[in-house]
Amino acid sequence: MAPPMSANEFLAALRREGATVVEVDGWRNHNRDGHGPWGPVNGVMIHHTATSGTDSTVRLCWNGYDELPGPLCHGVIAKDGRIHLVGCGRANHAGGGDGDVLQAVIAEKRLPPVRWADTDGNVHFYGFECVNRGDGKDPWPEEQLLAVEQVAAAICRFHGWSERSVIGHLEWRPGKVDPTGFSMDRLRERVRERLK
């Protein structure tokens, strides 16, 4: 458990890891604070957007939609590897998920099968949406996968976490399939290697 990073700490951590960051105007104060707590934080959650196109996806993740106001994540990871920061603080990305999974993340142990949606994940997880249709056919360029690795490692390094603190949305909430197109175990291997 840890207090969340400030906007300055977040930006500096990403840049130290070599990430290419795009600061969307107003991201430092764009959040859902006041609609529930933000922190203590315990991990990083990776999603795919089920969209295509960077600009429209960044707008969607900034604004949200009628049923789910933005920001829908902390950063949007484009196919070219640029990370567009859209929020700092509580964001509507994780939703309800399995409290047993959260306990495994906190303990940095192997994740149990996801069964419940009994815990608010927006309190506990930094969230990154990756531009991908999520149909299993849309490619994941190496630049994008490297950026996913960099953001996950940057946050883990800052908080002193291992790769076990990085999960996919599908490992958190029943019925979710994201991210589709790469293995979370492989991503965690990449993060582990980077953290050495």
Polypeptide structure, described:
With 196 residues, the protein is an alpha/beta fold. Helix content is 30%, strand content 17%. The strands form three sheets. A six-stranded mixed β-sheet has the order 1-6-5-9-2-10, sandwiched between helices. The chain has a two-stranded antiparallel sheet with strand order 3-4. The protein has a two-stranded antiparallel sheet with strand order 7-8. α1 crosses α4. The longest helix has 18 residues. The radius of gyration is 15 Å and the shape is globular. The mean pLDDT is 97.
Question: Features of this protein?
Answer:
alpha/beta, globular, 196 residues
The biggest beta sheet reads:
6 strands, mixed
The tally of helices reads 5
User: What is the terminal separation in angstroms?
Assistant: 21 Å
Instruction: Say how many strands there are.
Output: 10
Rg, alpha carbons: 15 Å
For the biggest β-sheet, the strand order reads: 1-6-5-9-2-10
* Shape designation: globular
Runs in which pLDDT lies below 50 for 5 or more consecutive residues are none
Helix content: 25-40%
Q: How would you spell out the order of helices and strands? A: HEEHEEEEEHEEHEH
The class by helix and strand makeup works out as alpha/beta
- Name the average pLDDT: 97
Percent of residues in beta strands: 15-25%
Domain N-acetylmuramoyl-L-alanine amidase: 27-180
InterPro entries: Amidase/PGRP_sf (IPR036505), Amidase_domain (IPR002502)
Protein name: N-acetylmuramoyl-L-alanine amidase
Pfam family, one: Amidase_2
